[in-house]
Amino acid sequence: MGLVSKDDGWRIPDELWALMEPLLPKTGRPHPLGCHNPKKPDREAMNAVLLVLRTGMQWNSLNGTGLCSSSRAHRRFLEWVEAGVFLEFWKQGLLAFDGLVGIDWEWLSMDGAMSKAPLGGEKNRAQSDRPGKERNEAQPPHRRIRYSVRARDRRGQPKRFQDGLRDH
């Protein structure tokens, strides 16, 4: 018994399952030796998959719910994605909504981003007020780059060679 022990209203309703079940790929034969655990019913696996997709919880968290093991649910999810179950269900829902309410197909956008890409095109942004090094501009002699003492000690040759002292 896991954390989810009763139907609390988030599981797939019968009417919705009647539309979704025909889209699922047909299951294969059981193992010839009968040595594997029996396959979880599709509806239980779909409830587990939709719980993960709805809540954003990790797949491994399914193990504590008692719905379905995380590995089984994830494996079924990948099978259903590859078979196009979710895409087809979305298309059917979209067409049903269009029949009931209507969708203005003239005014659609594939992507909600309506701005320029951050690194694309010309630079039309305000210039920074803080002083700094521009591209390909040498630093003035009074503004040389300073490194921390630790970083300087780790760079290049050991300290005795930097000071010009040699052990001959």
> Low-confidence runs (pLDDT<50, min 5 residues)?
none
Sketch the major β-sheet.
Answer: none
Number of helices: 6
Shape: extended
| Total beta strands | 0
Radius of gyration: 31 Å
Percent in strands: under 5%
The structure class reads: mainly alpha
Mean pLDDT: 75
Order of helices and strands: HHHHHH
Distance between the amino and carboxyl termini: 78 Å
Share of residues in helices = 25-40%
Spell out the key features of this protein.
single chain; 168 residues; mainly alpha; 36% helix
Secondary structure layout plus pairing:
Layout: H1 14-20, H2 42-55, H3 70-83, H4 85-100, H5 149-154, H6 159-162
Describe it for me?
This protein has helices at residues 14-20, 42-55, 70-83, 85-100, 149-154, 159-162. With 168 residues, the protein is mainly alpha-helical. The protein has a domain at 14-100. α2 (42-55) crosses α3. It is extended. The N and C termini lie far apart (78 Å).
Could you provide a short overview of the structure?
With 168 residues, this protein is mostly helical. The chain is built from six helices and no strands.
